[in-house]
Amino acid sequence: MIEDIDSNVKLTLSKSQSIFDVVQRLEPKVDKIDSKVMDIDLRTRIIRTIQRVDKQDYHISDVHNDRVYVYSKQEVAFELKKENDKCELMGGYLLELDDEAEKLYTLDLAKKIGGDARFALGGNDVATEGTWVYYHSKKPVPSDVQWLPGEPNNHAAGENCMAFRMTHNGLNDFPCGQNARFICELPLAP
Ligand SMILES: [Ca+2]
Ligand SMILES: [Ca+2]
C-alpha cells in the first residue's frame, strides 16, 4: 500500500501538476487506506482481547459496544474476589451493567448459553446492606437497571451478591458463596 502511494506521488509529481491537484487526487486513496488501517486495528484489538480467554472454560460473545462478554462454562462457589481475579487475568472484570440495555443483551446471551443456569455478576451489597455497588469500579448499580419484581429481597440469612436468575429471566440477589456460573466483561484491548 505504501509503495502504491509512493509511486502515485512520483507519477503525479512528474506530471508537474500543482500541489492542489496532487492532494485532490490522493485524498480518496488516503481515506481508503485510513479506513483499512482502522479495520485492521479493530481486528487486532479483538484478537488481543480474546486470545487471553481459555475457550475450554468460557463462552465468548460477539463484540458489543467495544467489549466482549465471557461466560464461564462451569459452576463455582461464587466469591467476588476469586472470580473477579479470573476476569482480571483475561483483561476484564466481573460484569457491570451500565444500563438496562446492557442487562438485556447479557441476559439474552445467558439464556442462549446456559439455559436455566445461574450467572453471577459484579454487583453486591456486601459493605452496606441495600446499597448495591460493583466490585471492580465501586460504582453504584444504576437505578434504571431493573431487578425482578420483589428483588433484591436479602432473603433468609442474607443475599449480598447479584445474579441472573434464569428460571425467571431477570436479576436477583443471592448468597455469595453459593454455586453459580459467572460473567466477565472484557473491554477491547488498546
Ligand atoms: Ca443484601
Ligand atoms: Ca433474592
TrEMBL record:
Gene Ontology molecular function terms on file: carbohydrate binding; growth factor activity
Keyword Secreted: yes
CC per GO annotation: extracellular space
InterPro entries in alphabetical order: C-type_lectin-like (IPR001304), C-type_lectin-like/link_sf (IPR016186), C-type_lectin_CS (IPR018378), CLec_Tetranectin-domain (IPR051663), CTDL_fold (IPR016187)
Keywords of this entry: Disulfide bond, Lectin, Secreted, Signal
Location(s) in or outside the cell: Secreted
Residue ranges of the TM segments: none
SUPFAM superfamilies found in the cross-reference section: C-type lectin-like
Ranges where the C-type lectin domain occurs: 64-185
PANTHER family attached to this UniProt entry: C-TYPE LECTIN DOMAIN FAMILY 11 MEMBER A, TETRANECTIN-RELATED
Name of the protein in its database record: C-type lectin domain-containing protein
Source species of the chain: Elysia chlorotica
Taxonomic lineage from the root: Eukaryota, Metazoa, Spiralia, Lophotrochozoa, Mollusca
